[in-house]
Amino acid sequence: MAVINANAEAEALNDKLAGLDLAGRLSLVAGLGGRVVFTTSLGIEDQVITAEIGTHRLPIDIATLETGRLFAETLALIEETEAQYDIHIQRFTPEKADIEAYAAKYGLNGFYESVEARHACCGVRKLKPLARALEGATIWITGLRRGQSANRAETPFAEYDAERHLLKVNPLADWDLEAIKAFVSENGVPVNPLHSRGYPSIGCEPCTRAIKPGEPERAGRWWWEQDETRECGLHVAEEASALAAR
């Protein structure tokens, strides 16, 4: 689709989604046609979306990026979630050759040494698998929320992802953490036990720590870097462009 038309379509969809509840948003998107993919990190907000997809049997593919460095608790939650909602979560893993090439250049844990090395690791373990997860998709659903970080404060309900040439939908954009927790409690949604141990945002184990009182939700992600660099590239166009070119 032409970029101008795609942006207009995204703006119109954004307006429609704003007036609906979560189930309505997901149902509307699922009915737009084409392949719809939800990528989950198994975090608490993503679990809310998965619960609605599973409960309402919506025709939305669910995928996760199994990076090879996830917490054991996250891996266990994948199977628990599949069993509870009778769904299949497709796993996308990094290529062995890419991991070996990264380790040869930076060292296996070289991401601690520079932003470049960390972005390269995310490129191998997350961006390339994401590209495979989204092959043939027309709509990409995410769990992005405005309250997660300053970088995400303006997150719309729908936008055109020019890098991947698809519509990106963020149905929880206006939900705060308290609303997320209330939904989980009321609906018996399984969540990662690490959330109760001070991890509101959970990624790869070497790159995630518990947060301190008063810190933003995502302060524990890549904590050794400055705030403006704390994205992996999945949701930042500039990062996606740079990493895809490597």
Please, could you describe this protein's structure?
This protein is of the alpha/beta class. The chain has one domain: HUPs (Rossmann fold, 3-Layer(aba) Sandwich). Helix content is 41%, strand content 11%. It has eight helices and six strands; from the N terminus they run ααβαβαβααβββαα. The protein has a six-stranded mixed sheet with strand order 3-2-1-4-6-5. It is globular. The two termini are 26 Å apart. The C terminus is likely disordered. InterPro entries: APS_reductase, PAPS/APS_Rdtase, PAPS_reduct_dom, Rossmann-like_a/b/a_fold. It is an enzyme of class 1 (oxidoreductase). Catalyzes the formation of sulfite from adenosine 5'-phosphosulfate (APS) using thioredoxin as an electron donor. Its main location: cytoplasm.
Per-chain topology:
Blueprint: H1 3-18, H2 22-30, E1 35-39, H3 44-55, E2 61-65, H4 72-85, E3 89-92, H5 96-106, H6 115-133, E4 137-141, E5 158-161, E6 166-169, H7 177-187, H8 237-244
Parallel strand pairs: 1-2, 1-4, 2-3, 4-6
Antiparallel strand pairs: 5-6
Helix pairs in contact: 3-7, 5-6, 6-8
Function: Catalyzes the formation of sulfite from adenosine 5'-phosphosulfate (APS) using thioredoxin as an electron donor.
Active site: 232 (nucleophile)
Protein name: Adenosine 5'-phosphosulfate reductase
